[in-house]
Specification:
heterodimer, A: 167 residues, alpha+beta, five-stranded mixed sheet, B: 1050 residues, seven-stranded mixed sheet, six-stranded mixed sheet
């Protein structure tokens, strides 16, 4: 019953054209229409960060954006981080630290960290904590995520040294 | 529920935008970040949204004539990244950073924050004497914000910009947003102060409050009092009183008006140079010398772990978002299901009419109680909960009907078309009141669901001989599990006619049994898949969405998916049983415990679930790890209309530890003993019978944990008043003592199987669930150690009744033992078969062969290269006759059968260093140190994760978490007000230690670690608060208003 709109935007480096209800939320478009399930919907009101995506390079809550607001936007979902070199380093550092447990929040944290460390590669614990204030993790004590993030900053600063011998 | 019919208008000019807005039922939208929350709260969705984004001139920050003009569409993110703002208006910069969360700030605009008239930036802008530039149909205008806020807003108006004067001379400023947690929090109150000082004299002061429910306002009376005063002449008590009386603030379900006024006054007085009022704290000297820690205790840390640190096998897929949770499955032919909730706490159902919903195009099926072929009742202990209600609803989240339709939108519309007529019944919202005579019965059996009484010795004699008695009442919250993946999954009937139900859970075989009863289907016609699950913590132990999913899939014959949204999860899901614990404890003049009397009243909510087990477990821990000769305990569990409560990590033990461990510190203070000595004098001795008289397992490590606590370097950190005078720091400790397994009375089966798979993997089959705790990595560790292969050779298969054997539930700190025991018991048989097959293949005596990483080697050989890989061995074998070993057993049980008792315990001591704010009464945990003794660690990283994660859930339980209910309805409806701890609430340091050794001959292996992390956090923090301010908070989450009052008490 909603008024449908034809939407054009960039998604993970590709131009997409879809018809959706104007008020359909980006997180529902991703998960239910486009089969992209890495971003999760855990509160639906912008209070947990599980649905984080990058819009024009900035982390935002995909549950707060309605279809009409993403016209012309350049969107990267957690799937789209595959093409981002810093993200590969961040993911590896987080996985090696066993930063997450159930993992449901992990793609959202990774999105926010990618945005932070692209802009501020030498971020310290203070900056990391500030950037992650909007991401809720229920399994960990957050310290594993902080440790993994700090390891990522070191790996970004010294990409060669961070490689494992098996690379 | 009305389906949305929304039209988006995108005017290019202010004039057009005002015209659009004037068409009625329209809403101006900038960032739009408030809309989802407003709609979730039930505010009507407008038919038209007017996008302001295309109007020129509304964005950007410009400096001119000593003023900053901030365009209304400037996002808060742009503001906080703006150098001009950082340099010229640090006060505004500070306020922006405490508004919402970082990602929300990237969308939200300053115009939206102002136009909503309740934004967190308003007090700052008021104090800065900001002016608002806006347009109405009558034209453009610029007026002071203070006046603008006081106007009646009849006409549609568009805020274009806010103009802020940049102070020429340096000003002193203070800003404090007081919330419900450390960051990304609703505002309790925000207080802002600006002073211009010249020659030691206040030239001007501008004070403002606002935020959340507090109307933004300048405090002109207090400002006038300050103006013209010499700094050293200011009587801050007068100023404080003026601010308190002038601040207008309301009460709400979270904080009182009085509290808001007090903290605003404290914050402003302190921020302007007045310093905190009230008691001057005693200074506490850090410990000079510490005893030695117990030999063998290690700190768990990746940098120290060396080869014991392993990356969990599911880690990369989770971080990259590739892991498919059961709620991630989508198929083109999949229907979308939803459940109709009662929405009313207590009522008789008069009629359910689904005809209009059924007639809606796109609806595939609607199910009600009439579709239930079996028994319409479930529950792990007592089958008292209907799958779909038929006669009554007993809480707001009760399931009444369910719909499956082609898409989410149709499903929602159909839900709105189901008509249920109710006759409301009196709401029972208090556990004690539920048990009074004459209270409306919730179930036909009455409101007393269960009571437990236990007595040992002569309690009256014990108290009669006491030198010291302490008595207190401790209250614990209705904590929410808050797993990030809400309850959900999918179901379908497969080609063999088997119903597949795939939904997050903690015990697939029991879910299958419960579904079988409800559906009237034999268990072998049902397959339940429960892994992977995105967090559970006990909250997915009971059935959640499975009955509705199953009924819909059966009725439609099509795959159906269904996931609760968060608000529905709050409404329907189980919570931790709220408890009130009255404890009276006596000791003699030497601090030796004589008597312990405990009365517990526990709120079950509307249905039993595991509430009786939780209460019984709480009572089993009623003396903690201490030997007490005279004991009397009683517990009553009452039905109420307050949601449903049940299993949650700690399972009653952590609630009871809060009381027991605070009592110990209180008695120590009365006896003049230190907190270690009183515990030393009363600690149970290894080999003694358990609290209920039962035999307990060896390898008790309580004295070692006490020694570790005494030796902890936390005692050498600063305590007492903080450098800036605003906080008082204290250290506290508490013992941790948690039973493992379900206990003597319920069946507690364990088991599993190992096999060589056709592709050469060593498959480890367990009917346990990976919920995040690290089951998979633990299985790899245990099987690799038992078999001699590498972790990478092991492929865990879990949580699927179609593929995995009976292992029992993934609860009660029991699965670590099951994982280890299966590996130990099945590996020798599997190894024998593998080596026999390898011997045959290689033409060698199997006795000359051994299993090694990757395959089979010559026994005693140092060569790293296998003679035969597992894959090559498997390839050459008949797939039907691959090596396979299965085992089953009962979880170790003790000999006490008059009640439920545990045999195996894990041990620990938790220490917390906290800072109590003299401004707000809030508590920050600075350091959390956990000492644990749970036997040999299977996987170090997983164990560390359990301790840190459990610790953080304990911090939440203690300081911020409670699902607040009023008259049977949730006030905390979602994560905007239910305060899961954020990263800003995480302690500055968390340190975890482990003592792994077992007594010689101990047959029980590694103990469960899942609940140990939360066990003693609350009393450690409470005792730390008492160390700081001499007062024990009796209620969790701690009420900062009570703490402030305690601070001010003479």
């Amino acid at each position: 019953m909603t008024t449908g709109i034809a939407l054009t935007f960039r998604l993970n480096g590709e131009d997409r054209f879809i018809d959706v209800s104007a008020d359909m939320r980006l997180i529902d478009i991703l998960r239910d229409r486009l089969g992209l399930s890495a971003a999760k919907k855990a509160c639906g009101i912008g209070r947990c960060g599980a649905c984080s995506v990058l819009v024009d390079g900035r982390a935002v809550n995909a549950c707060l954006l309605m279809a009409w607001q993403i016209e012309g936007a350049d969107i990267l979902t957690p799937e789209g981080l595959d093409a981002v070199p810093e993200a590969a380093i961040i993911r590896r550092a987080l996985a090696e630290e066993n930063a997450f447990q159930c993992g449901y929040c992990a793609p959202g944290f990774t999105i926010v960290l990618t945005a932070l460390l692209r802009e501020c590669p030498d971020a310290g614990e203070r900056e990391i904590r500030a950037a992650l204030e909007g991401n809720i993790c229920r399994c960990t004590g957050y310290h594993s995520i902080i440790r993994g993030s700090l390891a990522a900053t070191q790996a970004i600063a010294r990409p060669d040294a961070a490689k494992s011998p098996d690379d | 529920m009305t389906p949305s019919v929304v039209q988006v208008l995108r005017p290019a000019s202010l004039k057009d935008a005002l015209a659009c807005a004037a068409t009625g039922d329209a809403r101006l939208v900038a960032g739009g970040t408030a809309l989802q929350l407003e709609w979730a709260k039930g505010l009507p969705q407008p038919r038209r949204l007017v996008d302001l984004g295309r109007i020129a001139g509304l964005k950007g920050i410009a400096i001119a004539g000593g003023e900053l003009r901030i365009g209304a569409l400037t996002t808060l993110g742009d503001l906080e990244r703006n150098q001009l703002v950082q340099d010229k208006l640090p006060l505004l910069d500070a306020a922006v950073r405490t508004t919402a969360g970082p990602a929300v700030r990237n969308l939200a605009t300053i115009g939206g924050n102002i136009a909503g008239r309740a934004g967190c930036l308003l007090p700052v802008l008021l104090a800065l004497d900001a002016r608002i530039e806006s347009s109405t149909a009558a034209g453009q205008r610029i007026m002071p914000l203070a006046e603008w806020l006081q106007e009646r807003h009849g006409d549609t108006e568009i805020v274009e910009a806010v103009i802020v004067h940049i102070p020429e001379t340096p000003v002193g400023w203070t800003h404090r947003k007081v919330g419900l947690r450390a960051a990304f929090t609703p505002s309790v109150i925000s207080a802002v102060g600006l002073t211009e000082i010249a020659d030691g004299c206040v030239v001007a002061a501008r004070l403002a409050v606002g935020g959340g429910p507090v109307a933004p306002a300048r405090l002109r009376g207090a400002e006038a009092l300050l103006a013209g005063l010499r700094l050293h002449e200011i009587d801050w008590r007068v100023i404080r009183a003026a601010i308190e009386s002038e601040t207008a603030a309301p009460d709400d379900a979270f904080r009182s008006a009085r509290y808001r006024r007090k903290v605003a006054a404290n914050a402003l007085v302190h921020g302007l140079g007045g310093g905190p009022d009230g008691q001057s704290s005693r200074r506490l000297a850090p410990a000079a010398r510490l005893p030695s820690p117990p030999p063998g205790e290690i700190r768990l840390d990746r940098s120290l772990a060396g080869e014991r640190w392993h990356m969990r096998p599911d880690g990369p897929a989770k971080v990259e978002g590739r892991l498919q949770y059961l709620t991630d499955h989508r198929r083109l032919d999949m229907l979308v299901g939803r459940i109709l909730r009662a929405g009313i706490p207590h009522a008789r159902i008069l009629a359910i009419d689904t005809s209009a919903a059924e007639a809606l195009p796109g609806v595939a099926a609607i199910v009600t109680h009439r579709d239930i072929a079996g028994s319409n009742a479930f529950g792990i202990l007592v089958q008292d909960q209907p799958a779909l209600c038929f006669d009554k609803v007993r809480y707001v989240g009760d399931a009444v009907a369910a719909v499956a339709a082609v898409d989410a939108e149709t499903t929602e519309r159909a839900l709105g078309l189901i008509k249920v007529s109710y006759r409301p019944l009196p709401v029972v919202s208090d556990a004690e009141a539920a048990l009074s005579v004459g209270t409306e019965p919730i179930h036909a059996t009455g409101n007393l669901l269960r009571s437990f009484d236990f007595e040992r010795g002569d309690i009256d004699d014990g108290f009669a001989r006491a030198a010291h008695v302490v008595e207190a009442v401790y209250e614990t919250p209705r904590q929410m599990h808050g797993f990030m993946e809400t309850e959900g999954g999918y179901a379908f009937v497969d080609d063999d006619g088997v119903l597949n139900v795939c939904a997050g859970g903690q015990y697939g075989l029991r879910d299958r049994l419960q579904l079988s009863r409800i559906l009237g289907l034999p268990e072998d016609r049902i397959r339940v898949v429960t892994s992977p699950t995105g967090g559970a913590f006990g909250g997915k132990d009971e059935l959640t969405v499975q009955p509705a999913l199953a009924l819909l899939a059966l009725k439609t014959g099509r795959p159906v998916r269904l996931q609760l949204d968060r608000a529905e999860s709050v409404l329907a899901g189980t919570k931790r049983n709220a408890m009130k614990i009255r404890m009276r404890t006596a000791c003699d003049s030497n601090g030796v415990l004589l008597a312990q009397q405990v009365e517990v009243i526990s709120d079950a909510g509307a249905y039993a679930s595991l509430g009786p087990g939780v209460l019984e477990t709480a009572l089993e821990h009623a003396c903690g790890p201490y030997a007490v000769p005279h004991v009397r305990t009683s517990g009553r569990l009452a039905y109420t209309n307050n949601g449903v409560c049940g299993a949650f990590r700690g399972f009653g033990a952590n609630q009871m530890a809060f009381a027991v461990e605070c009592q110990m510190d209180r008695l120590a203070a009365q006896c003049g003993l230190d907190v270690f000595e009183i515990r030393r004098r009363n600690m149970r001795k290894p080999g003694m019978r358990g609290y209920l008289g039962q035999t307990v397992a060896p390898s008790e490590r309580l004295m070692e944990m006490l020694q570790a606590a005494a030796a902890d370097p936390i005692w050498q950190k600063p305590r007492g008043i903080s450098k800036d005078g605003t906080e008082i720091v204290g250290v506290g400790m508490a013992m941790n003592y948690q039973g493992n397994g379900l206990g003597t009375l319920p069946p507690d089966p364990g088991g599993g199987a190992l096999r060589l798979a056709p592709d050469g993997a060593i498959e480890a089959l367990y009917g346990l669930d990976e919920m995040g705790q690290g089951l998979l990595t633990s299985i790899q560790a245990a099987v690799a150690a038992a078999l001699g292969c590498s972790r990478d050779d092991v492929r865990p298969v879990t949580g699927d009744t179609g593929r995995t054997p009976e292992s029992g539930s993934t609860t009660a700190s029991r699965s670590t033992y099951v994982v280890w025991k299966v590996a130990e018991a099945a590996a020798p048989a599997l190894a024998r078969d593998i080596l026999a097959a390898a011997g045959e293949r290689l033409g060698r005596n199997p006795a000359a062969l051994a299993i090694a990483p990757g395959g089979i080697v010559e026994r005693g050989s140092n060569s790293g290269v296998p003679l035969l890989s597992f894959a090559t061995l498997a390839e050459g074998l008949d797939p039907e006759r691959l090596p396979f070993a299965v085992t089953s057993f009962e979880f170790p049980k003790t000999d006490y059968l008059r009640g439920n008792a545990r045999m195996i315990f894990a041990f620990g001591a938790t220490l917390a260093r906290v800072a109590v704010s003299r401004i707000t009464g809030q508590v920050r945990v600075l350091d959390l140190h956990q000492h644990t003794a749970a036997g040999p660690i299977l996987d170090l990283a997983a164990y560390l994760g359990q301790m840190e994660g459990g610790g953080m859930q304990g911090v939440g339980f203690t300081l911020t978490e409670d699902t607040v209910m009023q008259n049977g309805r949730y006030v905390t409806a979602n994560l905007d007000t239910y305060m899961l701890p954020s990263i800003a609430d995480a302690p500055e340091t968390m340190t975890t230690f482990a003592l792994e050794d077992l007594d010689p001959g101990d047959p029980f292996g590694p103990r469960g670690a899942g609940e140990l992390g939360i066990g003693a956090v609350t009393p450690a923090i409470a005792n730390a608060v008492a160390d700081a301010i001499g007062w024990w908070p009796p209620r969790a989450p701690f009420d900062p208003e009570e703490l402030l009052d305690a601070l001010e008490a003479p």
